[in-house]
Amino acid sequence: MLLCHALSKPKTYLYTHPEDELSELAWIHYGRYLYERLQGKPTQYITKTQEFYNRAFRVSPAVLIPRPETEHIIEVALDRARYAQRTVDIGAGSGAIAITWQLETGCKETFATDISTAAIEVARSNSRALGATVQFAAMDLASALPNQAFDLVLSNPPYIPEPEGQTLQREVRDWEPPVALFGGPTGVEIYERLIADASRILKPGGWLIMEIGYQAQSRVTALLEGWQQIEVTADLAGWPRVVSARKPDS
Ligand SMILES: C[S@@+](CC[C@H](N)C(=O)[O-])C[C@H]1O[C@@H](n2cnc3c(N)ncnc32)[C@H](O)[C@@H]1O
Known about the structure:
The protein is of the alpha/beta class. It has eleven helices and nine strands.
């Protein structure tokens, strides 16, 4: 991947041109990428791109690298709330969820928030580049959004327990933004505020669909007392990954 990046060519080029010699410039780029990778920098931050739901998203160290498991949020949301008129993604990062949702469903009123203005900039540029029209705003969770205005709230909040910081892979620990990773001492604290905010901004009957960390299922579903149709969807590895719940009609 790094060699392809240095050559600005697709992978097939490496196989179809085995006789090619690297130009001096390509060597310089390739050498720098290898050096960065050896320092632990994730490949995606070197190539500045990560695919999500078959689209290429630009990433920088200001945003979490979108993970394939997060695509389950889109699948669950398509199943439960495909026709939502107004959607918000809380904690947009690169914009992967909000932009994918908008492009997959055509939901014209798709909004996204993030506490990091640097992340919002990356997400905005992804939205433009991919032809989406998501509207972004920097804020703490949904604090500046109006009451009962949304049909669907999506979120992949930071949920790693702070004490687990030292056990993370160095690519994650040393490179991905801490604000995108850690959800408080147990990792569940952010859900307390997120669920309260979602309850306030959702219309009656609206859906909340969130990603959760492994081992968080019972603690997160316990916070959903009074919600309806609470369901947990496992990822391809069998871990509980997405929680969906519906705000009562009245
Ligand atoms: C786990 S990342 C998810 C990024 C992206 N949605 C994805 O799935 O790839 C969590 C995101 O939430 C943002 N965030 C953390 N705390 C927040 C808060 N209090 N309010 C809004 N956004 C927050 C982080 O900046 C980060 O972009």
